[in-house]
Amino acid sequence: MDIVHHSKNLLLASGTAWILWTLLALSVASVGVMIERWLVFRSSGGDVGGLARWLGDALARGAAAEALERLEAHRSTAARIAAAGLRLAGHGPESARRAMESAEAFERSRLERRLAFLGTLGNNAPFVGLFGTVIGVILAFDALGTEAAAASSQAASAAVMSAIAEALVATAVGIGVALPAVAANNLFQRKISSVLDDADALSMLVLAHLSSSELRMAGPANQRERA
Length: 227
What we know:
By secondary structure, the chain is mainly alpha-helical. The protein has one domain. The protein is built from ten helices and no strands. The chain is rod-shaped.
């Protein structure tokens, strides 16, 4: 028996049920990832516009230590990145810029975590469903060949049409699993861009005020020592 018959017998023995269970498990996993990522992005938000206005006023007054305390207390990603630069305010703008770039890279990695799973699922779930449909069609035509010898042609045709209709369910389920994953991945990617844009705006504000020699000389650490 050649490889084609071996493959056909293997597919006939496996059936399509395991494909549907796999898609169901992947769907449950994707929902879990969506909820977890939503909580992460929710905790990374905040009124960055209001914080930027307050930060600008504080830095204009040279109150770097007060500004750092406010940034460290703020929950937003932008505040964490700006705080990384402000900690090195006493070392000049270049050191602060590099610190904020490092913090931004870390925050981007944190925000993008597990999104690759959603992207991969969105791209490949329809193919998993199509694989199940192909197996179902093989089963249908194998049944047609068996029933045609023992039943009328009309009855055999009805049976194979019913089997093919059931086989198409796998493709439909695959598409149904992929659509929410793609939508969630796109939404989260746009959210990442928005969060990092806010971080860039706050970082530029910090760097602009660090051009003042007074603020560089009186960085947060020095201000705390004097206090």
